[in-house]
Amino acid sequence: AANPEPKPVRELTEASPIKIGFAQVGLESGWRLAHTNSVINAAKEENIELIYENALQKQDKQIEFIRQFIASKVDFIVFSPVVKTGWDEVLLEAKQAGIPVILSDREVKVSDDSLWTAYIGSDFVEEGRRAARWLVHEIDDSSVPVNIVELQGTKDSDPAVGRKQGFEEIIRSEPNYRIVQSMQGDFTLQSGKKLMLEALAAHGSDIDVVYAHNDDMALGAIEAIEQYGLRPGRDIKLISIDATRAALKALGTGKLNFVVECNPLLGPQLMKAVKDYMAGKELPMKIITSEGVFTQETAKRELATREY
Ligand code: GZL
Asked: In this prediction, does ipTM exceed 0.90?
């Protein structure tokens, strides 16, 4: 038999539009601000009521907000989990309340994947691979030692775990590459600067490359390298991920060497998924956004049109 006609989840009226509870992870980076704005603007476009809460990168606050959304009987819970684990209990409460959960940007690791309905975001492992592939291609010499400092994003977060894994997967086959120091940051400019000052104190000009899990930490590292008296982008190469305007500008001035894009404009795809679900349509479990890379040559052209 043909697929049965999708049956709307409930009647939608002017007085009772779709209501989403959005427990945002924080406001830690330029990328996060663009992500938040994309979700808020897309909800407005679709006349969807969005309750936005900022959890300041604290898991217990995200859980608290999710419980508030369950109590106020929203139609959907949307969040970007600050870390991968520790969500089973509260997501079971959402499931028992019959409220679907959509993961926007980051994934969770739970015992039962029916606890979340869909994931919209990036392939973080591939982002890490792209960063390393460029470096290997750029250096193109297996005889010189390449000493790398890695600035990691929030511990146990989906992007930090994936970006580390992808980068290591590629440099593993390069015997002259070494991560001389891998440091725990939190995706903020301040953490990038602080960690880079420590790395410079320990290794100084032996550092050839900095691999930062996001632009804000790379921009902090640039400040530290200049404060130390070296030239970022020349004495030490820098690679970062996100591709915010600030990073593209640093590419344009030669202080960054390569940037892998991570697309924060997930709002429209999220609202489409919400409307499809309410119309009774099946949602794909994962919707991976398309994203590219930028070099010093391509940064300037991109800056002319980039909205974040
Ligand atoms: C990636 C996102 C990361 C960004 C950071 O999808 O979760 O969190 O790379 C942000 O800038 O803090």
From this structure: yes
